[in-house]
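Moderator note: this is an archived Q&A kept for reference. The question asked for a predicted structure of one protein chain; the sequence and the answer are reproduced below.
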Amino acid sequence: MTQLQLRPMTTADLDTVLGLELALFGEEAWSRQMLAGELSQQPASRYYLIAEDPAGAVVGYAGLLAAGGQADVLTIAVSTARWGQGIGSQLLEELLAEAVRRGCTEAFLEVRADNLRAQRLYQWWGFAEVGLRRGYYQPSGTDAIVMRRDLAGILRPQPASGTADGEATGRNEATGRNEATGRKGRQTS
């Protein structure tokens, strides 16, 4: 796994994050206003992270909504040049740990139906499919798979069967989107 520093995202990170947003999500990227709005809700109900490599380069970010005992993974994104290095898994692990710290008992997310890498990452971490939202991602009209995980017990990968992406370490990366609560969320790791 790649050595990373995970730290809270701040408004000073917006330009860098927006660059990754556009590169990873194209026309479905969040706007500066959406990201700034999300950050304005920290720490009350949001938790956003930046992943930096040892040289200080931002290689990923992630966001969580935690309220009323429920957590929603809103976004996970990792630079394409860094896919397959376990960064998405590290970000997800920290989001789930924060959800537990905030007293959440379950976590939800949405992921693009055409994003098998992201689906394998979430399955590796114990998420199971609980629904489908047709035409959810716009403007592409791609369906979203709704996934859920119980947060009771020890926080670690819980593969349903086999390993994710053929790796025993859970170092699979994702490109997908998640929206839970009116915010377009996504995963690219």
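Archived answer notes: The chain has four helices and nine strands.
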